[in-house]
Specification:
The chain is an alpha/beta fold. The protein has helices at residues 4-13, 28-41, 65-78, 103-119, 144-168, 201-217, 252-258, 276-284, 294-315, 326-336, 349-358, 371-385, 391-397, 399-406, 414-433; strands at 20-24, 45-50, 86-93, 124-127, 176-179, 227-232, 237-238, 243-244, 265-268, 287-292. InterPro entries: Aldolase_TIM, GatZ/KbaZ-like, GatZ_KbaZ_carbometab.
Length: 436
């Protein structure tokens, strides 16, 4: 069976600008909204987990690869979404989480992670070995050859594991690999940037050549055909309060060089907050895998804040209803546990407070799974299920969803409203990736 992502590569080679949206989130509402859109467009759904999010030690979500797979499959079952239309991906697979450890230890853990991913049925692996480890000279740039050799070691571990997995799962599709060392910081830039350096055509070529040689050296040439994409920096980025828009002209040298290589496409990271037309231009230029994460949970957070305001208006004079105080609870938990935001937000106290709640970097997403925030979320949902939200109030705080409810295209239900808000972002991606 042909891997679904290879079909996209085939179409791109034929000059058909087809792509796929990669949903990088472990949030239930985000995944449910993504499944709704994939059903509507009759599309495969690519869902990815980063190495710090899901790994053999649990990551910050507390999930190992098999747990994440089961989590996604359980949502699919409840949503009547076909399991065979799900592509699970591992993002930034390499020593990202263990960069403060010695090379031997960090790489051993990276190889163990990729083996667990393969055993859990993940079939898209983004190999990222571009970070310095404790053993590396901090004053020297890691050479592309060294990065590729580390990447080949991870790929070899994946291939060896797949042989064992295939013996017990004869229907299994071989994994595909994404390579590339010019990877934007997961979750957005930590500083405001006036311009972004686009990967040069020469650096792209060097990445390909270095990996080919490393695969040859590791005796895994047989899986080179399963390397389908290279991560490059096409000139897109976002931070707390800025968005660097895609510039076709600035990326033209790079994207023209791509056309010289059959069976390879580009993967774009940090595409969050781009306009639908920018996303479409990226797909037309061969950047066919568009990764999005923070923009989806940003939309989720917006929806929860809007519903919180609706709740307060509806019940502020009703002493029988205990309000969720969702926004206040989220803020309190973030202040109590600053580990996930304090290195991202700086400046005056006023600026930090603003960024903590409203930044495009959306560090709020790390706190949504906390018990206190989950409890407040459920209380908010329960309160708004007691009776329908009055349409004038819905129009005030969620005008787009109001129109859909008014026209009987959306249920007046808090969870349906949340997922539709997230769906607005996903709609931009489907505009870009669906040909025509």
């Amino acid at each position: 069976m042909l891997h679904p992502l290879k079909r996209i590569v085939y179409l791109q080679n034929k000059g058909i600008p087809r792509g796929i949206c990669s949903v990088c989130s472990a949030n239930r509402y985000v995944i449910e909204a993504a499944m709704d859109k994939a059903i509507y467009y009759n599309s495969f759904l690519l869902i990815e987990a980063t190495a710090n999010q899901v790994n053999q030690y649990g990551g910050y979500t507390g999930m190992k690869p098999i747990d994440f797979r089961n989590f996604v499959y359980d949502i699919a079952k409840a949503s009547d979404f076909p399991q065979d239309m799900i592509i699970l991906g591992g993002d930034h697979i390499g020593p990202l989480v263990w960069k403060d450890e010695e090379t031997e230890t960090a790489m051993a853990k990276s190889c163990e992670l990729v083996r667990e991913l393969i055993n859990a049925g993940f079939t898209k692996i983004h190999i990222d070995t571009s970070m310095r480890l404790l053993s590396d000279d901090r004053d020297k740039r890691l050479s592309p050859v060294y990065i590729a050799e580390r990447g080949a070691a991870i790929c070899k571990a994946a291939e060896d594991e797949f042989l064992s997995y295939k013996a017990n799962h004869p229907e299994a599709v071989a994994p595909v690999y994404i390579i590339g060392s010019e990877v934007p910081i997961p979750g957005g830039s930590m500083e405001h940037e006036d311009s972004i350096s686009v990967t040069s055509a020469e650096d792209f070529e060097e990445t390909l050549n270095s990996y080919r040689e490393a695969f040859n050296k590791a005796d895994i040439n047989n899986c080179w055909d399963n390397v389908i994409a290279v991560v490059v920096q096409p000139g897109v980025e976002f931070g707390n309060d800025f968005i660097q828009k895609y510039n076709h002209a600035a990326a033209e040298n790079l994207t023209k060089r791509l056309k010289m290589h059959k069976n390879i496409i580009f993967e774009g990271h940090s595409t969050d907050y781009q306009s639908p037309y920018s996303l479409k231009q990226m797909v037309e230029d061969g950047i066919a895998i568009l990764k999005v994460g923070p923009a989806l949970t940003f939309a989720l957070r917006e929806a929860l804040f809007e519903l919180n305001m609706i709740e307060e208006v509806m019940y502020r004079n009703n002493n029988e209803i205990e309000l969720s105080k969702f926004s206040a609870v989220l803020e309190a938990v973030m202040v109590e546990q600053p580990i996930y935001w304090n290195s991202y937000y700086n400046g005056s106290d006023e600026q930090v407070i603003l960024d903590r709640m409203f930044s495009f970097s959306d560090r709020c997403r790390y706190y949504l799974p906390s018990s206190k925030v989950l409890e407040a979320t459920q209380k908010l949902i329960n309160n708004l299920k007691i009776k329908d939200i009055p349409l004038p109030l819905l129009s005030q705080y969620m005008p787009i969803q109001y129109r859909k409810v008014r026209d009987n295209k959306l249920r007046n239900d808090p969870e349906a409203l949340i997922k539709d808000k997230i769906g607005e972002i996903l709609e931009d991606y489907y505009f870009a990736v669906v040909a025509g």
